Amino acid sequence: MTSGDDSRAARSERKRAYKEAEVPMGIYAIRCHANGKLFVGHALNLTAMFNRIRFEFAQRMHRVPELQADWERHGEAAFSFEVLDRLKPREEPGGPPPVEELKVLEEMWLERLKPYGDAGYNMPPRS
Predict the structure, then answer these.
(1) Measuring CA to CA, which residue among 99, 111, 119 is closest to residue 26?
(2) What backbone phi and psi angles, to 5 degrees, belong to 29?
(3) What distance in Å separates the CA atoms of residue 75 and residue 24, rounded to the nearest whole number?
(4) Under 8 Å between Cβ of 62 and 53
(5) Which domain of life is it from (predicted)?
(6) CB-based contact 26:102 (threshold 8 Å)
(7) Which stretches of the chain are DSSP H helices?
(8) Phi-psi domain of 94 (left: phi exceeds 0; alpha: psi -120 through 50; beta: other)
(9) What pLDDT sits at residue 126?
(10) Are 22 and 80 in contact (CB under 8 A)?
């Protein structure tokens, strides 16, 4: 076997392992330690979501203008990204889509933390 075959086999193995890896999905929070405010959201891929949010802040295009303004005012060091809850992957196919389960879980966290107004960046629920 040549070294080209080794690298091709190793590449193939890494690709297979990547496809089989469990993707962390769940509920996250962005916390501003300078003012105590919190943003709560859900993601089918928490790692990708945290990367996306950092990119949005860097490009000044986060979808919550007040959160973007505080990021610029206080700087990245004043914020933390936290996983509040994880949704376990299904053992068997079927059932409701994971996004529906995530929305229910997010509602529970929103009810618990109430990150609205002076306490956070989320929009309050409609009455």
Answers:
(1) 99
(2) -135, 145
(3) 27
(4) yes
(5) Bacteria
(6) yes
(7) 3-20, 46-58, 65-74, 98-113
(8) left
(9) 86
(10) no
- In words, the CATH class of domain 22-87+95-119 is alpha beta
CA gyration radius, the chain: 19
Q: What is the DSSP letter of 34?
A: T
Q: For residues 87 and 102, is the Cβ–Cβ distance under 8 A?
A: yes
Which residues fall within 8 angstroms of residue 67, CB to CB, at 6 or more apart? 30, 32, 37, 39, 121
Does the structure show a pLDDT above 60 at 103? Answer: yes
Q: 32 with 82: CB under 8 angstroms?
A: no
C-beta of residue 26 within 8 angstroms of C-beta of residue 99? no
Residue spans per domain, the chain: 22-87+95-119
Length of the chain: 127
